Amino acid sequence: MIEPQPAIQPQQSNLTGSANGKKRRFGGTEAQIRSALKFYKVLAYLTGSMLLLLCAELIARYAFGQYLFAGGTNAVTGQPHGFGFADAEPAGVIGGLNLSVAVLIVHGWMYVVYLISNFRLWSLMRWPFAKLIILALGGVVPFLSFFVEKKFHADVDAELAANPQAPQRY
User: Fold this and answer.
1) Which helix (H) or strand (E) holds 125?
2) If you ran DSSP here, which 8-state letter would residue 108 be given?
3) CA atoms within 13 A on the CB side of 62
4) How far is residue 116's CA from residue 167's CA, in Å, rounded to a whole number?
5) Are the CB atoms for 73 and 79 separated by under 8 Å?
6) pLDDT tens, 142-169?
7) DSSP letters for 54-107
8) Which one, of 162, 168, 154, lies nearest residue 18 by Cα?
9) If you write DSSP's letter for every residue of 35-53 in order, what string do you get?
10) pLDDT (tens digit per residue) in 123-133
């Protein structure tokens, strides 16, 4: 004779899981996560620094009408222009390298690489989508990348310490 069994089996207690009873799993090994975290940290500081330079450049351009130039010839006097600010309109320097535009371009491409580092860390940690948005805002709001990096670095360390079984996939 077959013994009757309850339709719902009792749940096993999960001491290492999160508060809702699910096991925490990451999208990679601990080494992969730490590598992504280091890549993100470097890009956060570089992008944040370039954003501050960009803000200074925009203030110089729109508040004072000046561009930062390296080299070229002074348009008014004909003397060589070494390094410094010159009038934006009309052009104060002929030739030379417009460092103001270079800052714009470098920050733009650096932000793209910063977004890649954000996505890599976010996907390995399997965080909610809102955290990806916060990470991305770090590259467009001045000083925010420094604070966000510090907070998320601590979050990653805490999650790795709290879930030592989670990263071992292989």
Assistant:
1) helix 99-125
2) H
3) 5
4) 21
5) yes
6) 999 999 999 999 999 999 888 887 666 6
7) HHHHHHHHHHH-EEEEESSEETTT--B--EEEEETTTTSEESSEEHHHHHHHHH
8) 162
9) HHHHHHHHHHHHHHHHHHH
10) 999 899 999 99
> In which residue are the tokens 């793209």 written?
112
H helices of 126-169, in order, are 129-137, 144-162
What whole-number distance in Å separates Cα of residue 139 and Cα of residue 50?
A: 9
Q: Which residues pair with 25 in a beta bridge?
A: none
Task: Please give the Cα distance from 87 to 67 (Å, whole number).
Answer: 6
Measured CA to CA, the distance from residue 68 to residue 169 in angstroms comes to 51
Sheet holding 66-70, edge to edge: 83-87, 66-70, 97-98
